[in-house]
Input
Amino acid sequence: MLRMKIGQGAGMAGSVITVAQQKGGSGKTTLSANLAVGMRRLGKTVALIDTDPQGSLGRWFMTRLELAPEEVEGMEFATSSAWGITYECRKLADRYDLVIIDTPPKADSDLRPALRIANLVIVPVSMSHLDLWATESVLDLAHRESREALMVLNRTRPGTRLSAEITEAAQKMHARIATAQFANRVGYAEAFGHGLSAAEGRKTPARDEVEALSTEVAQILANG
Ligand SMILES: Nc1ncnc2c1ncn2[C@@H]1O[C@H](COP(=O)(O)OP(=O)(O)O)[C@@H](O)[C@H]1O
Ligand SMILES: [Mg+2]
Output
């Protein structure tokens, strides 16, 4: 397995995570929001940047601001164009422990600046062969920018043959694969609509998953 050292971005105080995947609907925005809250709960301040014109993450953040304003403390949200990301990200990384960049479903040259500035690229992979096929191009781009990528299996359905097949195929790809996964749970969609993370509220399996992923990612950022 290819492993690269995860350095701090030049002159930036905080770490940067870019969430990318060519396949739409793979869970980029869901993962971005949940990881933001999960990291916040670990005590880190978090800025989110949405570069997807669709603006779902912004919608989530504004809903949160409206319904749970106290839960926005230590968080910030900004939008950016693909080419403006370097400037926007540097500004926020000076003030926040972590910057999470959500991106549109593309894997082309537009994505490069967001990959280049990242300490870690997270690639959600939902349980379909389409997702898996789309993953290679993002991993390639990350590799070309010498960034380490972490695949996170999403919408898993334990016990199904499809989940087993996708998991096995993902393990053969040239990137680290997170131990933590998000199963297919309505709780994720429900929480998102209320500006929340599945990590908030009752103790549920989804909350455990978000906490596990956040802890794992925090460890990777700290130790490489
Ligand atoms: N683990 C999950 N369980 C159930 N639904 C999910 C899960 N992850 C994402 N979804 C749903 O899948 C859809 C696409 O997710 P989204 O995060 O918007 O993907 P992307 O940003 O990659 O396009 C949304 O309706 C979202 O609620
Ligand atoms: Mg999205």
Observations:
- The chain has eight helices and eight strands.
